[in-house]
Amino acid sequence: MISEKEFNLMKKGVFIVNTARGELVDQASLMKTLDNGIVAGVAMDVVEDEPIDEKHPLLAYENMLITPHTSAYTYECLQGMGEKVVSDIEKVLRGEKPTTVINTELL
Fold first, then answer.
1. In what order do the strands lie in the sheet with 39-44?
2. Closest CA to 7 of 53, 40, 54
3. pLDDT band at 102, cuts 50/70/90?
4. Can you tell me the mean pLDDT for 6-26?
5. Other beta carbons less than 10 A from residue 28's beta carbon
6. What is the mean pLDDT of residues 62-82?
7. Is 97 within 8 Å of 89 (Cβ atoms)?
8. Mean pLDDT of 19-48
9. pLDDT at residue 71 greater than cutoff 80
10. Which residue ranges make up each domain of the chain?
11. Which one of the listed residues 21, 83, 90, 96 is annotated catalytic?
């Protein structure tokens, strides 16, 4: 979703945060824009081809923060996911549509 074209439309000095999917940001374009100053800094817990290799070129940037993709592994988050699954199953068993269904045509 964010490649060289999108980076070139940004104001110089932007910060990028990606906690969704590594493939959403083209890493070659990201490094290019870090080098030319369009992107001032990056924080992310996802990269293409996880886990990140210790020799990955992104790790050489001082204005890059990469953390493990483990943010969902908190007690509260796991409990919430479990409750959502149970709630959605109960709705299906009652003949109701679960909340936040994207592909409703499959129901």
1. 14-18, 39-44, 64-66
2. 40
3. confident
4. 95
5. 11
6. 89
7. no
8. 94
9. no
10. 4-66, 75-106
11. 21
Angle 89-73-107 from CA coordinates, rounded to 5°: 25
Sign (positive or negative) of CA dihedral 69, 66, 25, 51: negative
56 included as an active-site residue: no
Catalytic status, residue 50: yes
User: If you write DSSP's letter for every residue of 17-82 in order, what string do you get?
Assistant: EE-S-GGGB-HHHHHHHHHTTSEEEEEES--SSSSPPTT-GGGG-TTEEE--S-TT-SHHHHHHHH
Instruction: Tell me: pLDDT of 88 over 90.
Output: yes
Long-range contacts of 50-56 (CB under 8 A, 24+ apart): 50/22
Is 69 part of the annotated catalytic residue set? yes
